Amino acid sequence: MAYFDENGLCEAFNGRLRHECVNEILISSLRETLGITENWKIAYSNQRPHSAFKWTIPNEFATS
């Protein structure tokens, strides 16, 4: 059962990554891809409110 739960989380994340990042930018190299996705990951993890944290930013939730 855990496999299906984890797969659902992965699919949700992949869809969000594709929708918010990959489909929005014309990428011309692997190096550029790594930089763009790293910046998106940082923003997603540190600046974007998450429903799981009662719509707060993860860093704020961790310190509260």
Helix content: 55-70%
Q: What low-confidence regions span 5 or more consecutive residues with pLDDT below 50?
A: none
Overall number of strands: 0
DSSP strand (E) fraction? under 5%
- Rg result: 14 Å
Helical run tally? 3
Give the ordered list of helices and strands: HHH
Report how far apart the termini are.
32 Å
Label the structural class.
mainly alpha
Oligomer: single chain
How would a textbook summarize the main sheet? Answer: none
Overall average residue pLDDT: 82
- Dominant shape: globular
Task: Describe this structure as you would to a colleague.
The protein is an all-alpha fold. 66% of the residues lie in helices and 0% in strands. It has three helices and no strands. The mean pLDDT is 82.
Features of the shown structure:
mainly alpha; 64 residues
Please specify the SSE layout and strand pairing.
Blueprint: H1 2-20, H2 30-46, H3 58-63
Produce a short descriptive summary:
The chain has 64 residues and is an all-alpha fold. 66% of the residues lie in helices and 0% in strands. It has helices at 2-20, 30-46, 58-63.
